[in-house]
Amino acid sequence: MTKKGGADGAPAASDAVLLGPAQVRALAERLEVRPTKQWGQNFVVDPNTVRKIVRVAGVGPDDIVVEVGPGLGSLTLALLPVVRHVTAVEVDPRLAAALEETVRDLQPGNVHRLRLVAADALTVTKLPGPDPTALVANLPYNISVPVVLSFLQHFPSLQRVLVMVQLEVAERLAAAPGSKTYGVPSLKAAWYGDVELAGKVGRTVFWPAPNVDSGLVSIVRRDPPQTTASREDVFRCIDAAFAQRRKSLRAALAGWAGSAARAETALVAAGIDPRTRGEQLDITAFARIAEAAAALDAPAP
């Protein structure tokens, strides 16, 4: 017989008390909270959606999950019964102050699993307690890509990411070389792991309903490309290539490399036709370009 429950025998997510539309609005009214565009707040009011996020994230009793922008706690309440701990990073001081009380009211047996960090996620480089193993969040649309890249950079312990973002952003992050949506976010995310679009989410699960659909993005960490170039050098090469994405790499990388001739030399050394455009190359190719460019400045043996 399969044992039913989450971490430490806590109720399974399907049995846990979650927030529905009425509870979300009542909680917001009690806290005098009105969703603001400043912080990109759209609260999830559908329990099935947060259950799906937890399921697709693949987290379990051994995971330390960091959640960015917990808001009123819809996703937090779905995570707590399943994982070891949730570290919630919330920039809105009213919501940060109320989250622990909400968990204590609805899931008193899980309040010990919650750690709260009242901060802007874009400034967070350290977290209390054990290192996080997963990032699971409904991210504000206006900071979604910077947050994902920042947390992957500063927390190498993160093995999995599952975030809900604007569908257009999700498609850009998961895009493959050669597609119209492929670009800087696709490549920088690919430096850290394997990225895929893990699902689509309609507008009606949010309050207030946004003007766009949302998507789930999954990132499973793997080693970055083998290269002597630094991540910073590779990312600068990517930025330069897509600042003028319609130009050939020989032209687009001229400023970054020092001249069009130096860009061509680096590209040829990396095994890439200088007439190629950046949108045709994967992250490994950009690592080769950055490495070849650095070699041009290396002292002769």
Description of the molecule:
The chain has 301 residues and is of the alpha/beta class. Helices cover 39% and strands 16% of the residues. It has helices at residues 21-31, 47-57, 74-79, 93-106, 144-154, 167-174, 184-192, 231-243, 249-252, 254-257, 260-269, 283-297; strands at residues 43-44, 64-68, 85-90, 114-118, 134-138, 160-166, 193-201, 206-207, 214-221. β3 (85-90), α4 (93-106) and β4 (114-118) form a beta-alpha-beta unit. The mean pLDDT is 91. Residues 49-223 form the Ribosomal RNA adenine methylase transferase N-terminal domain. It catalyses: adenosine(1518)/adenosine(1519) in 16S rRNA + 4 S-adenosyl-L-methionine = N(6)-dimethyladenosine(1518)/N(6)-dimethyladenosine(1519) in 16S rRNA + 4 S-adenosyl-L-homocysteine + 4 H(+).
Q: What can be said about this structure in brief?
A:
Helix content is 39%, strand content 16%. By secondary structure, the chain is an alpha/beta fold. The chain has two domains: 201 residues, Rossmann fold (3-Layer(aba) Sandwich), CATH 3.40.50.150; 67 residues, Helicase, Ruva Protein, domain 3 (Orthogonal Bundle).
